[in-house]
Every structure is written in structure tokens, then in C-alpha cells.
Amino acid sequence: MAHKFQPQNFARLENPDRLTLFSPEALLKQCNLPVNPCLLDVGTGTGFYLQFLVQAAEPDGRVMAIDTSPEMLTHVKEKLNRWTEGRVVLVKGAEDWLPIPDQSADLAWLVFVFHELQNPREYLDELKRVLKPGGTICIVEWNKKVRDKGPPPEEVPSRAEMDGALRNAGFAVERSEELGLYCELLLARTVP
């Protein structure tokens, strides 16, 4: 069974120390986004990374904050009123379905989310459906090392498992590597 984050612990997702794990700005620059992109923050949680996605979507792109938890989306909505100008759309998704049109997004951003997926292959198929040809999926996930942060190592997939899942779903994996002390990075594209 996948390790699920409990919404009552949302304060842990707001810890600014999370920015020491990797640089969202630098990583988004490596995603080679088009002008005015449509970005999906998959498993947005408290919207911790939304400010970086909104900046990457400037000047006229948009961001969809997607989560399965109504509690998390309510928290994000309250937070958005403070710093966004209607550039973020909140989306209640499901494990096997996203209410998003086919081939409409340029980037799917999954940060510390992959280990929560009940059926990764179905979800990757759904992301492949909503990404444009050549669209990018960016996965940052906890590594399997013993660490003082995140879920237990036995509850997260290995980089090789995630790489294989992406390839089996028909993505072209461009990068699969360690990202700092705690994380793994996978960047892949839909095949045009």
C-alpha cells in the first residue's frame, strides 16, 4: 500500500527547510518550458511550490494545483488569496483520473508524490493523456537511504523502479539521477 500523507500534518509541508532539499527555480529552468505554459502541480498539498510554478508560467501561463484531498485544496485556496492574481486553478483529482483536457499541459510537477500513488502505471497513463506531445514530467522523490526526513525508505520506490515505470508508460526518460542528499530526480517527456 502506498504511503499517504495525512492532511492534519500539513504544517510539515510548509517548513521552509524544504527549500534546502533542492532548488525549485533551478529545476524548473531545466525543464525547457515554452512561453506561457500550462503547469500541473500534481499532489499540490499545501501549495508549497506554487509560487515557483507561477513565476515559471509568467507572463501569461497558468498553473493547475491538483490534489485528491479537499482539505488540502481548501488550505491552498486560503493561501492563494494572499499572493496570486487568479493564475492558479484548483483541481480536485482522483488516483486514476484528472478533469483536464487531453494534451493541454506542458509540465507535470510531482514533488514527493510518486510514493503516494496506489497504481503508478494508471496515473502515468493519465498524465501522458493530459500532457502535450513533447510535454515534460518532473519527478522529485525521496531516496531509499536512511534519512531524518520523509517517509521510511521501505515505503518509497527506488529511482530504478520509477525510471522503469516511466519507460513502461511510454515516456522518454531524459534524466534519472540523485538530487542532493535526500532526493531522486527523473525528467521525462511524452514522445511526440
Q: Can you walk me through this structure?
A:
The protein is of the alpha/beta class. It is built from six helices and seven strands. It has helices spanning 10-13, 24-29, 50-56, 70-83, 120-130, 159-168, and strands at residues 38-42, 62-67, 88-92, 105-111, 131-142, 171-179, 183-190. α4 links the parallel β2 and β3 (88-92). The longest helix has 14 residues, at 70-83.
State the secondary-structure class. alpha/beta
Beta-sheet strand percentage? 25-35%
How do the helices and strands follow one another from N- to C-terminus?
Answer: HHEHEHEEHEHEE
Biggest sheet layout: 7 strands, mixed
Give the neighbour order of strands across the main sheet. 3-2-1-4-5-7-6
Shape: globular
Q: What's the overall average pLDDT, rounded?
A: 91
Oligomeric state of the chains? Answer: single chain
Q: Which regions are unreliable across 5 or more consecutive residues at pLDDT < 50?
A: none
Helix count equals 6
Distance between the termini: 33 Å
Helix content: 25-40%
From the alpha-carbon coordinates, what is the Rg to the nearest angstrom? 15 Å
| Beta strand count | 7
Q: Main attributes?
A:
192 residues, single chain, 27% strand, alpha/beta, seven-stranded mixed beta sheet
Helix and strand topology:
Elements: H1 10-13, H2 24-29, E1 38-42, H3 50-56, E2 62-67, H4 70-83, E3 88-92, E4 105-111, H5 120-130, E5 131-142, H6 159-168, E6 171-179, E7 183-190
Parallel strand pairs: 1-2, 1-4, 2-3, 4-5
Antiparallel strand pairs: 5-7, 6-7
